[in-house]
Amino acid sequence: MVDKAQDNSGEQSTLARSKTTVEVRTLADLARIAGVSAGTVSRALAGKSLVNTETRERIQKLAREYGFRPNQMASKLRSRRTGVIGVVIPLGHDKRQHVSDPFFLTLLGALADELTESGYDLMLSRAIPDHTSDWLERMTGSGMVDGVIVIGQSDQFDTIERVAANYRPMVVWGQYRTGQTHCVVGTDNAAGGRMAARKLIDGGARRLAFLGSTTGIEIAIRFEGARQEAARAGIGITHIPVHLADEEMADEVAAALGYGSGSEYDGIIAASDLIAMGALRVLFENGHQVPVEVQVIGFDDLPLSAQTHPPLTTIRQEIHAGARAMVERLKALIDNSEAESLVMEPRVVTRASTR
To answer: Is Membrane there in the keyword field (predicted)?
Structure first.
């Protein structure tokens, strides 16, 4: 009588010896072992849903057991794909702004997660449009990427539109305009501006200031929304240009709110959370109590906004959901499918910097 444990052990050792003698170097080799076509193996290893789950998992298991890794370069040449997505941040409106800006880092992190899970690598470029008029064409025409994501329209709406007329796989984070060519994912900035102004007015503010440079499209729309809401309440609003670059922002916020001048306003709408954080610091340093004397509201709802003193009330942009939507739309465009723009609704996140 044969012991089953010994019998199984013998079978396993025979299989192990066979794997050391069988060399699997090509898709055809693995296909012969799996008893399927090379095309099925290719689709299974790529995780395609065209192959049923059981077959796909069996082929992937065999590939691991035989130590088979497909030639990715050859595969990319055959499919005319690079497996790389270009991500461009144009800074025509604020040339000193850095990629280390907390908003960029938050959105880039979310995009990197989504792209990696979709099997793509990411190539990042920070573009200063003043230095070259073909900043976007250099990425789209490089042959190095399968598609492009643009973070922010800056003051480059017309350039993006021109490129989008001839280059399809591109998605932009920014402001949607009726009839535009390029696919955009972003927040309803006008609604966000209205919400910010209404929040301060409902809290009793009557002397409003908007801190932010309006050379960029999104911030210009936020200011216009805030101005319209203030006008409906019969209240004026002072626009104070503040850049997003750290080097300029600190001095501009200090000039606007420091040295006793902060008492001119009892409600401050900041174009970004970073500007709002600067406002909180300057008001504190000059002896103004927030929100008793001055209410402050930001825009973005970055993770840092809950850590300020006092915690910052802000207008939330759905950054992670937006990143997911951008990648989904870009994948559709790469596959020659249709993709519609998405305008996401903002919402007020109330914390202790407002009443």
So the answer is: no
